[in-house]
Every structure is written in structure tokens, then in C-alpha cells.
Specification:
- InterPro entries: Creatin/AminoP/Spt16_N (IPR029149), Creatinase/aminopeptidase-like (IPR036005), Creatinase_N (IPR000587), Pept_M24 (IPR000994), Peptidase_M24B (IPR050659).
- This is Peptidase M24.
- This protein is an alpha+beta fold.
- The protein folds into 2 domains: 137 residues, Creatine Amidinohydrolase, Chain A, domain 1 (3-Layer(aba) Sandwich), CATH 3.40.350; 221 residues, Creatinase/methionine aminopeptidase superfamily (Creatine Amidinohydrolase).
- The chain is built from 10 helices and 18 strands.
- Strands 4-3-2-1-5-6 form a 6-stranded mixed beta sheet, with helices on both faces. Strands 7, 8, 9, 10 and 18 form a 5-stranded mixed beta sheet that branches. It has a 3-stranded antiparallel beta sheet with strand order 13-16-17, covered by helices on one side.
- The longest helix has 24 residues.
């Protein structure tokens, strides 16, 4: 067990004691990756990390045990296809003193059949929760190693945007531009994870991907992209224009930029996430475009591209130093164009540090 895993398990147990949680059950995925530094192969065979205030155990399919043993010395309770997992699960829960907890936190990304397996092994009156106030709460604050990896990925994404704008020209399709973006990520050793290339009226669809639409002179092009390197992601949105921007676009871009600046100013340790959303939304609403800002202002980012804290109109999350999240207001005018500007920030004691080094000004294609 690495020193970082030991530290994180100790922090999780402190949270469990504070929240009177007797068991946290974690499936293969990002929670396990964060805790242990790896995640086993996942299929329909239940594989679970079980943590109590006094112990840790793995419910482990015998098929995968020897491979996973290379990564951890946590006790395994193996089960085979011939016997099934129930007996091994009960043995594991008993070994860590968690067969009758008052409160259990289930990994919210867990398969439903895994979750029911755990709950069926516990008393029927156990209080059932998810991990928001235990494991999820810990993940929101990033350490310097995580910051370095997020910063590295942000820099790669900056260069992918620059490569896209350098290649952008009338007549090419959105899919062709998306291919350039993907190839740039691959060239830098990152796996492209998503690409939104929304030109002209397609830019008014916030989650458009890319199509065979030909980009034309006078289009505004929303470019929202991300990749993954060393298990951490990037996410950035900028807008480029081909030739002269469409009528009214410069005004919309300026409003969205003011909304970004307002949200950045509101993002301080101790502020509520909803106050950051309100700061951006107020700018856009007062400019007369409130009904065209159709999504939240931001989302957290870490091992997952979308994770807490969520910067929404209803979120009561208190922002803390070390949290990483996006600020990405937008205005989407159906049939015309869209405009979204996105920054990923880490919250420092005096406010947000932007991970990208790319300006938010309107980018102009040179093709």
C-alpha cells in the first residue's frame, strides 16, 4: 500500500467516524482509482472494496485475484463462479466489523446488482447513503500532484485548440476539424475523450459533437474539447470565427466574457457554488439573454471529467481551497450561432487560478 493510499484511507476513516458511517462500499471506477491508485478490470462479477473504521477488505473474483494482487496487499475474500459471491461478502464484512453498520455509503457509480448484493447482506434497517459526505467530499480537494497533472493536460488542450484554429478554413467539415483535434491529442500522448465542433447554427446546440456540415465563411465555431493523459482529463471551450463574425456575435461574446469574469470574481473559498452560478447568470440575464443560457455554470473535474462540486443555481456546496471546477457560461441562439467560454480553475486562498494559458478573445481562422 503506497503512502498516498494510506493517507487517503486514513482521511476516509476520519470522515466515516465524523458522519457515523460504518461501511463504505466501492466498485471498480474512479473512486477506487482515487483511493488505491488503480482499479481492477470490471465486468458482471462483483468486485468490491469494503472500508470500515477498523479495516479494509476486497470482495474479489477468483478469476482476477492473482492479477490484482500485484497492485495491493489488502485482504482478499475470493469467490468463484461455481459458488457465487454471497458467502465471501459476508465473511469480508465480518472480518472488518461491518456486518451490521448503522450507516452504509454506496459508491453511486456502482452497478445496481452490486449495490443490492451489499444491501441484502446488511440488516434491513441500515441507513443507506451515497459517498458525497465521505469519499466524494475528500475527492473535491486536489493535492499538488493532482494539480500538476491537471495543469499538464490543460496545456495539451491549449495546443489542441491552437492546432484546430490554425487548420480551420472554409469548406472543411466539422468532422475534419474534429479529426485534427483528436490527432493532436494523440501526438502528445493523450487519449481524446470528447470533441464538440459546432459551426454556425450547430453552435446553438450545447452538446453537439461534430457532423459533416461544411464550415462556411462567416461562421462562428464553438470548439469544446478534452483529452486524458496520466489518468487525468482536460476540458476547454473557445470560439473561433471564419472571416468576419456573424452579425451580433461580437456583442454576445462580450456578454459571455463578462459572465466568466463575474463568476471568477465570485469564486472564493467560503462562497457557495450557487453564488458563482448566480454571478454568471445575472450578467447574461441582465443583458436580455437569460433564456438562452440553458445549463449550469460549471462542474468539478479530477479523475472524472465531471465530478463534484457542481456549479449550479441550487448547489449549497461551500467552495474550499483546492477544489477544481469549470466556469463555462454560454448563450445559444437557435438557428444562428452559439458562444461558450470555458475555463478550468483551481481555487486558491485568494481566488481561482486558471489552468489554461489561452486567451478567451475571439479566435480568427487563418486558413
Amino acid at each position: 500500500m503506497t503512502p498516498e493510499t494510506q493517507t487517503r484511507l486514513a482521511a476516509l476513516r476520519e470522515r466515516m467516524v465524523a458522519t457515523e458511517t460504518g461501511l463504505v462500499a466501492v466498485a471498480p471506477g474512479s473512486h477506487m482509482q482515487w483511493l488505491l491508485g488503480f482499479t481492477p478490470a470490471s465486468d458482471e462479477r462483483p468486485c468490491l472494496l469494503l472500508v470500515s473504521p477498523g479495516g479494509t477488505a476486497f470482495l474479489m473474483p477468483a478469476l482476477n485475484a492473482d492479477d490484482v494482487r500485484q497492485h495491493t496487499d489488502i485482504d482478499f475474500f475470493r469467490w468463484s463462479d461455481e459458488v457465487g459471491p454471497h458467502v465471501a461478502l459476508c465473511q469480508a464484512l465480518g472480518a472488518i466489523g461491518a456486518n451490521a453498520p448503522d450507516r452504509v455509503a454506496i459508491d453511486e457509480t456502482m452497478r445496481a446488482d452490486f449495490a443490492l448484493l451489499v444491501l441484502d447482506a446488511l440488516p434491513s434497517d441500515v441507513l443507506r447513503t451515497f459517498t458525497a459526505d465521505t469519499l466524494g467530499g475528500l475527492r473535491m480537494r486536489k493535492n499538488e500532484r493532482e494539480y500538476d497533472l491537471l495543469k499538464m493536460n490543460a496545456t495539451i488542450a491549449d495546443r489542441a485548440i491552437e492546432a484546430a484554429v490554425a487548420a480551420l478554413k472554409p469548406g472543411m467539415t466539422e468532422n475534419e476539424l474534429a479529426a485534427i483535434i483528436r490527432n493532436h491529442f494523440l501526438k502528445e500522448g493523450a487519449a481524446p475523450s470528447f470533441w464538440i465542433v459546432g459551426s454556425g447554427p450547430n453552435g446553438a446546440f450545447p452538446h453537439h459533437t461534430a457532423s459533416d456540415r461544411h464550415i462556411t465563411e462567416g461562421d462562428a465555431v464553438v470548439i469544446d474539447i478534452g483529452g486524458i493523459k496520466s489518468a487525468f482529463p482536460s476540458d476547454i471551450t473557445r470560439v473561433a470565427v471564419v472571416g468576419q463574425p456573424p452579425q451580433g456575435f461580437a456583442e454576445i461574446h462580450a456578454i459571455v466574457e463578462r459572465a466568466v469574469q463575474a463568476a471568477l470574481a465570485a469564486a472564493k473559498p467560503g462562497a457557495l457554488a450557487r453564488d458563482v452560478d448566480a454571478a454568471a447568470r445575472t450578467v447574461i440575464t441582465e443583458a436580455g439573454y437569460g433564456k438562452f443560457f440553458t445549463h449550469r455554470t460549471g462542474h468539478g473535474m479530477g479523475i472524472d471529467g465531471h465530478e463534484p462540486p457542481y456549479i449550479t443555481a441550487t448547489s449549497e456546496t461551500v467552495l474550499e481551497e483546492g477544489m477544481v471546477f469549470s466556469i463555462e457560461p454560454g448563450i445559444y441562439l437557435p438557428g444562428r450561432f452559439g458562444c461558450r467560454l470555458e475555463e478550468i480553475v483551481i481555487l486558491r486562498k485568494d481566488g481561482p487560478e486558471i489552468l489554461s494559458g489561452l486567451p478567451r478573445s475571439i479566435l480568427t481562422a487563418k486558413g
